[in-house]
Write a structure and sequence with these properties.
Blueprint (H helix, E strand, L loop, with lengths): L3 E5 L5 E3 L14 E5 L39 E3 L1 H7 L3 E6 L9 H14 L5 E4 L3 H13 L3 E6 L4 H9 L3 E5 L3 H15 L2 E2 L7 H6 L1 H9 L7 E5 L4 H15 L11 E7 L4 H7 L26 H10 L3 E5 L1 H15 L5 H15 L8 E6 L8
The structure holds zinc ion.
Zinc ion binds next to loops.
Length: 379
């Protein structure tokens, strides 16, 4: 059984695990869950989804998770592509095979499980696309009504999933920031619980499994570098939290060196890259965000401070790629691996290549890139 408290990531304000919280009432920054029990690596559950790690996740005593078989995604080694890029070893972790075809399933499985536990009347989310599809699916699985605010420019296969599972889809002119304002207003007026990225503490918890699985798939060790295509930042934040937990709990040896966390963004929307280069602790919103990698079109992420902290603490890096480079490397990733790469995965490969070519990523490195969604979502 897991026990935890909630702690503000900025001011340290604490709330009990039973509290239904959004952002911190004192400073409006994200809460994170702090697991106070010590899960045992030898006692993982015999199930093949994120709830294999249930003792490391915020699951109340006797509670059944809201699950659609998320996680446990393949880690595929790509020797030919490693040679092509110029690193020692290269893997892709393929999140396209999740329910609703993106990594967002992990966080929303955890967040909807907790929200159902709190008895919320409904769930609302602003989305660049994939999080809306995931929330719609998990809301349906939990029997909780869902409203999704998405840009009208969201790829139509994603919008079709949201409609198909019965969510109330509201199209918004503009980007996810505009959708966020509409979702906040609706949550305030109608009492729906807002599960926007890092506006509640539990999506980050589900995303920790991106790291637990990686460690287990590499026989309980970590790669040198993780390259993560980053929009709202919840993947990076969840993984960075999980690496520290695994060492604290004895899942990994004390002397384990954490991977360098590399944030990959698109030239047309790169607020975290710009802030990292400026040495800033937070990011200023990107003006007129444009990229065909819809998941990266997040101009003002709430988790900016936490992502920038993870990059700095890990000795990591951040870079952005052109639309042409993203297209080229999406095709290369798909054709070299046989996985249905999304533009976000192509962006991660393009940035890996740029960092190797410019000498910022060592050629002796073992690198894992994340393909966070599915190419089919964009066709
Ligand atoms: Zn606070």
């Amino acid at each position: 059984m897991t026990t935890w408290i909630l702690r503000c990531s900025a001011c340290g304000h604490e709330e009990p695990s039973a509290a239904r919280v959004g952002t911190c009432p004192r400073c409006n920054q994200p809460f994170l869950a702090e697991i106070t029990s010590t899960p045992d690596r030898a006692a993982l559950r015999p199930r093949w989804d994120i709830w294999r790690y249930a003792d490391a996740l915020p699951l109340a005593a006797g509670e059944t998770p809201v699950s659609l078989g998320e996680g446990f995604t393949p880690l595929v080694e790509l020797p030919q592509l490693a040679k092509d890029v110029g690193v020692r070893r290269l893997w892709v972790k393929d999140e396209a095979v999740n329910p609703t075809a993106s990594f967002k399933a992990r966080g929303l499985s955890a967040a909807v499980t907790r929200a159902r536990g709190h008895g919320v009347p409904g769930l609302v989310v602003p989305t660049a696309g994939n999080a809306g599809a995931a929330l719609a699916a998990y809301g349906a699985a939990a029997g909780v009504p869902v409203r999704v605010y998405a840009p009208a420019t969201t790829p139509s296969p994603i919008l079709e999933i949201i409609r198909a599972v019965g969510a109330d889809l509201q199209l918004v002119d503009g980007h996810i920031g505009d959708a966020g304002k509409a979702a906040t207003a609706f949550a305030a007026s109608d009492g729906y619980f807002n599960v926007a990225t890092l506006r509640e503490p539990y999506r980050a918890e589900g995303n920790k499994t991106l790291a637990y699985e990686l460690a287990e798939q590499l026989e309980w060790r970590l790669p040198d570098v993780v390259v993560y295509p980053t929009g709202g930042g919840e993947g990076v934040i969840g993984m960075w939290k999980a690496f520290a937990e695994m060492v604290r709990w004895g899942w990994l040896p004390k002397e384990t060196r954490f991977p360098r966390m590399v944030v990959a963004q698109a030239d047309g929307c790169a607020p975290l890259v710009r802030a990292f280069r400026a040495g800033a602790e937070s990011a200023t919103p990107w003006e007129n965000p444009t990229t065909h990698a819809a998941g990266l079109r997040v101009p003002g992420p709430l988790g900016d401070r936490l992502v920038l902290r993870a990059i700095r603490e890990s000795g990591g890096d951040a870079d952005s790629a052109t639309e042409d480079a993203i297209r080229r490397d999406t095709h290369r990733l798909a054709s070299a691996s046989g996985i249905d790469a999304a533009p976000e995965g192509g962006c991660a490969l393009a940035v890996t290549r740029q960092l190797v070519d410019s000498g910022r990523l060592d050629r002796t490195s073992e690198v894992v890139i994340y393909n966070t969604g599915s190419g089919a979502s964009y066709r």
